[in-house]
Design brief:
This protein is an alpha+beta fold and about 300 residues long. The protein has a domain of about 190 residues. Helix content is about 35%, strand content about 20%. The protein has seven helices and twelve strands. The chain has a six-stranded antiparallel β-sheet with strand order 6-5-7-8-9-10. It has a four-stranded antiparallel β-sheet with strand order 1-2-3-4. The protein has a two-stranded parallel ribbon with strand order 11-12. Helix 1 crosses helix 2. The protein starts with 9 loop residues before the first helix and ends with a helix.
Length: about 300
């Protein structure tokens, strides 16, 4: 006699599916919790790299540090204590470690706050914790806050020599074609001349709008002016339009060599809406910092 086959009722089947779903959900929850810290660390490392890219201290395509020698940027190696030294010519670029990248950021980029009148405040003076401030505001940006985030770009550390200010790095955010875009813009001490830019988070169309994160397009911003000069070439920091314009086409064809061309870059073929989003992001982000830029300009004139 063959043993009778076991059969499961509908209730037993449903119970099994419910238990299995709860087990799977529990496992996924554990995995998500375990991966949260590594994911946040990876995002922080990426943001740190992109700040250095905007400051032209890090070369993203080659994944190496770079430093300035006689007006030219050359590959560099980490020398300890946040300092860089030129790499001997002909050697293969050395990829820095996460720790080295973070040490350079700590040594070269000093965060502080700017109020609506352009006055500086340290985080200690404002009684604000840097990590908490960034965590609470990084999604919506910092430009519209009463106290806005900015980083002072310091010179390469040299033992026995005080570091000088080489510029400022400002977080930029806006909306592209599909979603929010986040990046940085680095400005010279005059508060007007662009050192470099970067975008660390974007979901634009690959091969089109996503080119905002590529080095060739970002290089178009070097030396541009965020304050647009008038037709005579003069710039009134109090009233001039502010930002960088991404034109539809080539700057030389649309603006020729007019003063306005100094505040414009070539657009990306097939990515007009992304370009418009980038233009608006720079305008909306940089405009609230105008009082600070005016102070920088006035200090250089004195």
């Amino acid at each position: 006699m063959q043993p009778a086959k076991r059969s499961f009722s509908n209730n037993q089947t449903i119970l099994f599916m419910v238990v299995l779903s709860f087990v799977c959900a529990f496992i996924l929850s554990l995995l998500a919790s375990a991966l949260q810290v590594p994911q946040e660390e990876a995002k922080e490392l990426d943001r740190s790299k992109e700040m250095l890219v905007a400051a032209r201290i890090y070369n993203n395509p080659k994944n190496c540090f770079q430093t300035q020698m006689s007006g030219t940027f050359v590959p560099a190696v980490y020398a300890g204590n946040g300092a860089l030294t030129p790499q001997p010519p002909g050697e293969i670029p050395i990829h820095p470690t996460k720790s080295e990248i973070m040490q350079v950021v700590a040594a070269r980029l000093r965060p502080f706050l700017v109020d609506n009148q352009g006055n500086r405040h340290s985080f200690e003076e404002a009684h604000i914790a840097l990590d908490t401030y960034i965590a609470q505001n990084k999604k919506n940006g910092y430009a519209d806050l009463p106290l806005k985030l900015i980083y002072e770009l310091l010179s390469n550390p040299v033992p026995g020599t005080p570091q000088s200010v080489e510029g400022y790095v400002i977080p930029v955010s806006g909306f592209g074609l599909w979603d929010y875009i986040y990046g940085y813009i680095a400005l010279a001490p005059d508060g007007n001349t662009v050192i470099g830019i970067s975008w660390y988070e974007q979901k634009e169309t690959p091969g089109l709008g996503a080119n905002i994160a590529e080095a060739p397009w970002q290089s178009l911003f070097y030396g541009k002016k965020i304050f647009q000069a008038d037709s005579s070439g003069k710039t009134d920091f109090k009233t001039a339009p502010i930002g960088i314009i991404v034109v539809r086409g080539k700057v030389v064809q649309i603006l020729d060599h007019s003063p306005k061309a100094k505040s414009a870059v070539d657009g990306m073929a097939g990515a007009t809406l992304t370009g418009n989003g980038v233009t608006k992001a720079y305008k909306d982000t940089l405009t609230p910092y105008r009082p600070f830029f005016i102070k920088l300009h006035a200090e250089r004139k004195d």
